[in-house]
Design goal:
Chain lengths: 310, 329
């Protein structure tokens, strides 16, 4: 079995599945050797109402990068680098500095693909310090990022465009290209006229096929860690498709995500004995692990639409 | 059926020791694993260089345990503890688990008293006393020391079948531990052959058994951590199939050793392949050397690639002997 090596930098919680806890296991199950740097050391995510622990001190994150660099050649070793939740701008700045040094000094033909989930907030609300925003903008402008996975709110902030309809999505994606020139953008869900869609943008696709989207079944419930899991699934599917984002890749990931969310929802309903479940605090990633290994690339491919004019 | 375990051990960003060796195997077998990282290191110490730090007791470990146990009121089918870097942290873990276990008697507690190996102590000496305090609370169900760690706990050297028997009896009788597994015993007093080590197992109402383990001549790390995680999984399954604790432990250890053997063989094969590919050599005798990052990096346990081995449920490929049979030779 060939080795695939990935570095993921995101939050750690002892209980529940968000941040690295939502990304590491699925990627390992896909056969990735996953190196993980934790940006937090929390008992659980704040969605439980209370939590304990603390954010990783910036010096610790820096030290661990340094320690890794002492034993691993980043260019040679890593196929993918994933960055997710950073609790503050100091930690994100260190991640930026450390990775930029790697990419800038790279003399090797082989370079890791850098996938960034610009974690800022959701549903109109920031859950990190706003000082993080300029650092993300610098990261995206670096020219080294292959794929980003913002949610609707994050896309709005990064593109400075309010999203209300397909025209504004078009504007936002064009703006992302103009500002950062990112070759691949994926949105796990956007809400347009009460309907939910998953949207992909691939710069290298031919004109008229660059932006594609699928309608997705809405589950009226909040799932903590959903975005982190989505990014992990996307990272693997993208890599396995030779670093190309296509409707089949997006369709595959959307189907799997939906199956895991449905399974988690049902489990929550069963455990609570109530049908009024408004939030699922812990995704049932372990008990739905077999979903990961299915091939869903063709499942919804017939339902793809394209947005012309991008 | 969902099963949950709280794992308290080390985290390394790169490589497979502590939590990185234990968590994934458990997850593949359906365990929801909550984990507290006792250290955050870049890699294990076998590379000769390492960066990172231990978790802080007052601002992290204590409040996190309190949150999980007393605020979220989480239930666990099992708790497993491994490498804990200092006595303050061992004390906090001991206090919290004791309290938890008193209210949740059915939660299985596996303690791997990670202190050292081959007469070398890699934690502070004060840890020995803290581990003895945990044991004194009589709440440990499964223990997996190596020979050196057993010696530290009982306070004397294991030099004969009799000292081994006495030490194991202490674990059963004084500390009320049901499942005892001494993960690696030097063969000196058993058969004088240096190329083997032994694994000794015991329950209160069965005779001590020995498993002969062939040695792969290389330095691997994380082996003990993987062993304990797999043991927990197999014991948990087998306990639900049989009441005979001696037979349950013997079967479980046999299964675990079989998986370990497959995993180590794969690790060794892949290490050679990668080494030869990278260095353009055709070695078949590469060994991982401690404090040598250049060879060590090839000898990280292939935990990910060994996924297919972890669900092994057959009888096991080993043939245990009774200690009493050896004594009579």
């Amino acid at each position: 079995m060939a080795s695939k090596n990935l570095l993921t930098i995101s939050s750690h919680v002892s209980h529940g599945y968000v941040g690295n806890r939502a990304t590491v296991f699925p990627l390992q199950y896909y056969g990735w050797d996953v190196d993980a740097i934790n940006t937090t050391n929390f008992s659980n995510h704040p969605g439980f109402g209370t939590f304990a622990g603390k954010a990783s001190p910036p010096e610790l994150v820096n030290d661990i990068f340094q320690g890794l660099k002492d034993i691993v050649d980043f260019d040679e070793h890593y196929d993918l680098i994933l960055t997710g939740y950073s609790p503050n701008d100091e930690v994100l700045q260190i991640i930026y500095n450390q990775l930029i040094t790697v990419f800038n000094s790279s003399s090797s033909a082989k370079k890791p693909q850098w996938i960034v989930d610009p974690v800022l907030g959701d549903n109109g609300r920031l859950y990190v310090s706003e000082k993080v925003i300029p650092v993300y903008k610098a990261i995206l402008s670096s020219g080294f990022v292959t794929l980003i996975t913002p949610n609707q709110f994050e896309l709005e902030i990064l593109s400075d465009t309010k999203i209300t309809d397909w025209d504004s999505i078009k504007t936002a994606l064009l703006k992302i290209q103009e500002l950062y020139n990112i070759p691949n953008v994926v949105l796990s869900s956007v809400l347009i006229d009460g309907e939910m869609y998953g949207v992909g943008y691939s710069a290298e696709a031919e004109e008229g096929k660059r932006v594609f989207y699928f309608p997705i079944t809405q589950i009226h419930c909040h799932f903590n860690g959903c975005g982190d899991l989505f990014t992990a699934l996307m990272a693997n599917a993208f890599y396995e498709n030779k670093n190309k984002l296509t409707p089949a890749v997006l369709g595959d990931v959307l189907v799997k995500l939906n199956l895991i969310l449905e399974h988690s929802y049902k489990a929550e309903v069963e455990e609570n004995g109530s049908t009024e479940v408004k939030s699922v605090k812990s995704l049932r990633i372990i008990s739905s692990r077999e979903v990961l290994l299915e091939d869903n690339r063709e499942d919804i491919i017939g339902r793809v639409s394209y947005l012309v004019g991008v | 059926m969902s099963k949950s375990v709280l794992s308290i051990q080390s985290h390394v960003a790169h490589g497979y020791v502590g939590g990185k060796a234990a968590i994934f195997p458990l997850q593949t077998q359906g365990w929801d694993v909550d984990n507290i990282n006792t250290v955050n290191f870049s890699n294990h110490t076998g590379y000769g260089s390492v960066k990172g730090s231990a978790i802080d007791g007052t601002s992290e470990l204590k409040p996190i345990l309190d949150q999980l146990f007393n605020k979220l009121h989480l239930q666990y089918n099992a708790i497993i503890t491994g490498y804990i870097p200092n006595s303050e942290l061992i004390g906090i873990i001991s206090d919290n688990i004791s309290q938890f276990k008193k209210q949740h008697k059915s939660t299985l507690y596996l303690l791997d008293p990670v202190m050292g190996d081959n007469n070398y102590l890699y934690v502070d000496e004060s840890c020995v006393e803290e581990y003895k305090k945990i044991l004194g609370n009589k709440l440990v169900d499964i223990i997996t020391p190596n020979q050196f760690e057993l010696e530290l706990i009982v306070g004397y050297k294991i030099t004969s079948p009799l000292t081994l028997r006495t030490a194991i009896d202490t674990l059963h009788n004084e500390f009320n531990i049901k499942y005892v597994v001494i993960t690696s015993l030097n063969s000196d007093f058993i058969d004088q052959k240096q190329e083997r080590i032994y694994c000794a197992i015991s329950t209160p109402h069965s005779h001590i058994q020995l498993f002969k383990i062939p040695i792969i001549k290389s330095y691997f790390t994380g082996v003990g951590d993987l062993f304990s995680a797999l043991l927990l999984d197999k014991l948990y399954i087998n306990m639900n199939l049989s009441e005979d604790s001696g037979a349950v432990l013997s079967r479980s250890v046999n299964q675990v050793l079989t998986i370990m053997s497959k995993t180590l063989k794969l690790t060794h094969t892949m290490a050679l392949q990668e080494y030869n590919k990278t260095t353009q050599k055709s070695s078949n005798s590469l060994v991982g050397k401690i404090n040598d990052g250049d060879t060590m990096k090839y000898f990280e346990l292939r935990i990910i690639q060994s996924r297919k081995f972890f669900d092994y449920v057959d009888d096991g490929e080993f043939h245990p002997q009774f200690l009493s049979d050896i004594e009579s030779i």
